[in-house]
Amino acid sequence: MKSITILIALLYVSIANCQVIKDTIFFTNGSLVIGKVLKVKLGVITFDPDDANDITVQMRKLKTIGATTRVFRVETIFHQVYFGTIIPHHEKNAIYVNTGIDTVSLKLEYVSILYPFDNGVMQRFSGTAGLGFSYTRSSAVGRLNFDATIRYVSKNSEVGLALSGIYTIYDSLFSRDKEDLALKYNYYFVRNWFATTFLAYQRNLELGLERRYQEGFGIGNKFITTRYVYSWARTGLVFNQEKSTEGISSGTLTEIFGQLEVNFFRFEKPKINFLIAQAFYYSLSQSGRFRNDGTMNVSWEVFKNFYVNFGPYNNYDSKPPVKGGPSFDYGVVFGITYKFY
């Protein structure tokens, strides 16, 4: 027992002198884990220990972190952004960030996001995959829904791909009721401000839309990055090419858009995530046309990386592609989601 205590003490002295070969987390209860810091997001650190599976730990349970062999992007709840190595702090619940020019002292509670950007390409990916299905015997109708996201993050930019679909099965018939696909690229040029560009595809038979292609660009800001809330907004111009279910094509239509997304996180058990996303479009090509696309998602982690979720959605078009057709569509989807890093 004495030899173990001496070993831990020697390891801690090594950390304090920044002679760390691998990333290290030191708990407030005195225990020490050596391995690799994968990321920190909204109050939780994901850590890959030597010879063990990945672990997630609430930041408030850590005394300090050491990660001197890699450069990290560090975002704070005050919208500050630093690039540097992580040096253990002599104070409780704090770290140093060595930027190469200066050394900054930060409380762990002020760190919103932290991730290495010089990892291998595959380590920069994260995402989700979800699937749901419902069936009623009386109507012989099956309802299938799926969604997936993939995100790639580098030093000053991020790429995101999101896709989802809702399909109905009538005996031997298969209907593609609703489909969405969006590819976006964000480049951060000043702190949490970013330039954005994106491509999208939409299909909504309820609103008479066979397909819509969309190209857009603009500017955005991550204006809330606390330990439990993460929110961003963006605005700009989009160009649409629509085709109605009656086969009528619109040509290119121009719109001003605004989009808002808010994420709420609860990391104590039960772990619950709550997301609200709303996008608004005002047409510059068709007088008086206004559109709105929105989703909400509530997910509950039933076991590691697997979530049960339900998500209401809404779509509104004051001048739908089919004249006299419905202008509002809504629904709720249920499913199971897997998150990967």
List the helices and strands and how they pair.
Layout (H helix, E strand, L loop, with lengths): L1 H15 L6 E5 L4 E10 L2 E6 L5 E4 L3 E15 L4 E8 L5 E5 L4 E5 L3 E6 L8 E12 L4 E13 L3 E14 L2 E18 L2 E12 L4 E17 L3 E16 L4 E18 L5 E12 L6 E14 L2 E12 L10 E13 L1
Antiparallel strand pairs: 1-2, 1-5, 2-3, 2-9, 3-4, 5-6, 5-9, 6-7, 7-8, 10-11, 10-21, 11-12, 12-13, 13-14, 14-15, 15-16, 16-17, 17-18, 18-19, 19-20, 20-21
Structural class: mainly beta
Tell me the number of structural domains. 2
Q: Would you identify the CATH H-level superfamily of the largest domain?
A: monomeric porin ompg
Instruction: Report the average pLDDT across residues.
Output: 83
Q: Sketch the major β-sheet.
A: 12 strands, antiparallel, barrel
CATH architecture of the largest domain: Beta Barrel
Tally of DSSP β-strands: 21
CATH level-3 fold name of the largest domain: Porin
CATH C-level class of the largest domain: Mainly Beta
Tally of individual helices: 1
Helix content: under 10%
Termini separation: 37 Å
Order of helices and strands: HEEEEEEEEEEEEEEEEEEEEE
Basic shape = elongated
Which segments are poorly predicted (pLDDT under 50) over 5 or more consecutive residues? Answer: 1-21
Query: What Rg, in angstroms, do the CA atoms define?
Result: 24 Å
Strand content: over 45%
Strand order of the largest sheet: 10-11-12-13-14-15-16-17-18-19-20-21
